[in-house]
Structure formats: structure tokens, C-alpha cells
């Protein structure tokens, strides 16, 4: 039986996700209150973006827990697809948040209002730092676990940092410019909505590829051929297929061998190739090797 890497990876992903949820709950309260008291829609929009972070992070957490479940009769390849599915939910939530922020920003640009209070800049500066740190921490876990859902969660933190940064710039312009520049805060929120929409696509595209069993990035053919050729009796690779399911990879491989060997020898070579790949690539869960006569 193959040794799954899912439990440890899922546990790491779930831990960072829960930390993100806790931080976002605090930020929603702080940013929402500061935006309301400081007359800044950009900051309120930022609070809304953090609120979507909480909801989508819950989806990510559920997706990671589901993806870590062992294969069963109805899911012989495991439940890994729940992980990129959670990432797609995150991307769609970002699109919804971007549209909502854009609509409200345009409405506020048309309606005169007061210049935001200076103290909102302090709040935004703190948010940018906190969110950028979260992005780097969660992004590192996402890269190490090859988890599209965790990567999506990381980019959600980055989008929050970007919206806070644009709000900081917009409010600064409004404060420096004075009367007549009140809408700079709202233009910043509108710009942030576009950035959020772009980040949503950045999350959606690779997650959709994983759902559709797109070949994962990397030079798989060369790497698999080198590993296969290290096994005695293998002459080369005829064809291969690789797909990512959650945290792990499944490989179908056709290897070329002499047409004069016995079925037993061919069977032993196939097992040797499978064992070599599993040893070299811990993230690979299973390898199906087909023997082809040269």
C-alpha cells in the first residue's frame, strides 16, 4: 500500500487556514469600525473583502479536510478533487466581492461626502503589514504542499493587502488634496476591485486545470524517463499521463522493454519502475505501469 502524504499536508493547510480565519475576524471588526467612524468607504470595502476571506477560508478548511479522506468504494481515487474545488469557490467569492465593491465605489464617487479621517491611515498601514506576512506564511505552506486551495487562501490575503494599500494611497491623496479630492478614497476602492478580480482569475485558472485533469507544471516526461531508465530492462518511455488529485499525483506510464522477455520478467520490471518512481517522488500516490515491446 502506498504511503500517503495527505494527512500531514492537510493538517498544515488546515492550521494556516484557521490562523487566517482568526486574524480576519479581528480585522473585519477593526477595519469596519475604523471605516465607519473615519468616513472611509475604501476601508469599509476592505472590511468586506476580509469578511469574504472568512467565508472562503471556511470553504478551504472543509475542502482540505475532505481531500485528506482515504479512498473508499465510491471514490477509489480518493477525495482530492475537493481541494481545487474549494479554490474555485474562493475565486468566485473574490469575483463577487470585486463586483460589490466596484458598484458601491461608483455610487460613492457620484455622491459628495466628507474626507476620511487621518487615523484611518494608521489602521490601513497595520493591515497591509499583517496581511503581507500572512500571504508569505500561507503561500509558503501552499508551495510546500502543492495545495491549490492553500495557495488560493494565500492570494486572498495578498488581495486584502493590495486593497488596503490602494485605500491608503487614496485616503492620503484625499487628505493632502483637501476639498475636491474627497472621491480619491472611492477611486482607490474601485481600483482595488479590479485587482481583486485579477487575483480571482489567478486562483481560478490552475484550479480549473486540476479539476479537468490538466497535466501539472514541470518536465514530467524527462524526469519519469530518467527514473524508468534506472531500472534494469527498461529501454525507454512510450507514453505517459500525469494528473494531480488534491495533494498527490497519479501516473499512467507505458515503458518499452525487449519483446523477447517473459511475462513474469515484464511484471517484475513494471514493479521496479513503480517502486523507483514512488521512492524518487513522495508526492506520487500511485503509478500504473504498462509494458510495451520495443
TrEMBL record:
Subcellular location: Membrane
Gene Ontology annotations for the cellular component aspect, listed alphabetically: membrane
Keywords, alphabetical: Membrane, Transmembrane, Transmembrane helix, Transport
Pfam families the UniProt entry points to: Cation_efflux, ZT_dimer
Gene3D superfamilies (UniProt xref): Cation efflux protein transmembrane domain, Cation efflux protein, cytoplasmic domain
Major location (coarse): membrane
Molecular function per GO: monoatomic cation transmembrane transporter activity
Transmembrane segments: 16-37, 43-64, 85-103, 115-134, 161-181, 187-204
Cation efflux protein cytoplasmic domain mapped to chain residues: 216-293
Protein topology in the membrane: Multi-pass membrane protein
Extent of the signal sequence: none
InterPro entries, per database record: Cation_efflux, Cation_efflux_CTD, Cation_efflux_CTD_sf, Cation_efflux_TM, Cation_efflux_TMD_sf, CDF_Transporter
All copies of domain Cation efflux protein transmembrane, residue ranges: 18-212
Classification via PANTHER family: MITOCHONDRIAL METAL TRANSPORTER 1-RELATED
Family from the record: Belongs to the cation diffusion facilitator (CDF) transporter (TC 2.A.4) family.
Identification of the protein by name: Cation transporter
Gene source species: Larkinella knui
Amino acid at each position: 500500500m502506498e504511503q500517503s502524504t495527505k494527512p500531514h499536508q492537510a493538517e498544515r493547510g488546515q492550521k494556516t487556514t484557521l490562523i487566517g480565519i482568526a486574524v480576519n475576524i479581528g480585522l473585519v471588526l477593526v477595519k469596519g469600525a475604523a471605516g465607519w467612524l473615519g468616513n472611509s468607504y475604501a476601508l469599509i470595502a476592505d472590511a468586506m473583502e476580509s469578511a469574504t476571506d472568512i467565508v472562503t477560508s471556511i470553504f478551504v478548511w472543509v475542502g482540505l479536510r475532505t481531500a485528506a479522506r482515504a479512498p473508499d468504494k465510491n471514490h477509489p481515487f480518493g477525495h482530492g478533487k475537493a481541494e481545487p474545488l474549494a479554490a474555485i469557490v474562493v475565486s468566485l467569492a473574490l469575483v463577487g466581492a470585486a463586483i460589490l465593491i466596484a458598484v458601491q465605489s461608483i455610487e460613492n464617487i457620484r455622491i459628495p461626502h466628507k474626507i476620511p479621517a487621518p487615523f484611518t491611515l494608521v489602521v490601513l498601514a497595520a493591515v497591509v503589514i499583517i496581511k503581507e506576512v500572512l500571504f508569505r506564511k500561507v503561500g509558503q505552506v501552499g508551495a510546500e504542499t502543492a495545495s491549490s486551495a492553500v495557495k488560493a487562501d494565500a492570494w486572498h490575503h495578498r488581495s486584502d493587502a493590495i486593497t488596503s494599500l490602494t485605500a491608503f494611497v487614496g485616503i492620503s491623496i484625499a487628505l493632502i488634496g483637501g476639498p475636491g479630492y474627497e472621491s480619491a478614497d472611492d477611486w482607490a476602492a474601485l481600483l482595488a476591485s479590479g485587482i481583486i478580480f485579477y487575483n480571482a482569475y489567478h486562483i481560478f485558472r490552475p484550479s480549473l486545470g486540476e479539476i479537468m485533469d490538466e497535466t501539472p507544471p514541470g518536465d514530467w516526461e524527462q524526469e519519469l524517463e530518467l527514473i524508468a531508465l534506472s531500472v534494469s530492462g527498461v529501454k525507454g518511455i512510450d507514453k505517459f499521463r500525469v494528473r494531480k488529485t488534491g495533494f498527490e499525483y497519479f501516473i499512467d506510464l507505458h515503458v518499452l522493454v525487449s519483446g523477447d522477455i517473459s511475462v513474469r520478467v515484464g511484471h517484475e520490471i513494471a514493479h521496479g519502475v513503480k517502486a523507483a518512481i514512488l521512492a524518487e517522488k513522495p508526492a506520487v500516490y500511485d503509478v500504473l505501469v504498462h509494458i510495451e515491446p520495443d
